[in-house]
């Protein structure tokens, strides 16, 4: 089955965001060599621990330093932007890397202060019009506005062959029906809300309608936090940096394994990191064989056609080995049984 990456450009203690961004581009090249289908860059504003504040520059650089892998946003937080601006910027990236650009769309807060700083008009009342924004982007890319709509006269794609693939990302299930109705791809954040993964992806598949706006078949993707190693003990310990980040506060560089080992108490260290029945832990760990055994039932239960991997590792040799082993495991997962 297909396997992909979400890259947050984590900042290691004592390092810089410049170094993290360089590693994020190297991650795309490495992922391409390991057979990952796509790599998406996140949007985390005003973050100490992540350098991926704006995915667009990262997509641009990564697309020019790779040749096969799809590159995209995971996600552009559409509530902060004009749909026209987002559509135009990603269309330019499509011109640089035809057939390889994904526009992943989501909505999230960046804290009230940063949300306010991102506003162009700070006098207007904020509204939740996410569905309208998504439909507007679809309208620009596919000339899908009603004839009487004022934007029907805009030919945004003139002179550029092809458009980015549009995806919706969610962690509550609220966007699943919208993605299905529009006939576009849908990614559920199982690392954020694992208990909702099955119902959200089922809702997406059941609501899917074939349209000209997507691949004409449903594409349910499950995002999970996964780490791997050559032995189970080390694999479990690789979940500790993510746990230490949550336990000790998020506004800091991402802890190394050594720091996490020193910071965490035995209770946090001992929390499960393997799938038990239908219970998906926030972080999943294992060797290639055990990961395949854990993930295959989840994939079949959710109907996912692709698994998107996230990690919070700043020990880059351990991260590279982890991603290599995860690719080995997921390549052998049979989603059909």
Automatic annotation (TrEMBL):
Q: Where is the Luciferase-like domain?
A: 1-305
- From the Swiss-Prot or TrEMBL record, what is one GO molecular function term? oxidoreductase activity
Q: Which InterPro entries match?
A: Bact_Lucif_Oxidored, CmoO-like, Luciferase-like_dom, Luciferase-like_sf
**Entry's EC annotation:** 1.-.-.-
Q: Which domain of life is it from?
A: Bacteria
Keywords for this protein: Oxidoreductase
UniProt lists the family membership as follows: To bacterial alkanal monooxygenase alpha and beta chains.
Instruction: Return the protein name.
Output: MsnO8 family LLM class oxidoreductase
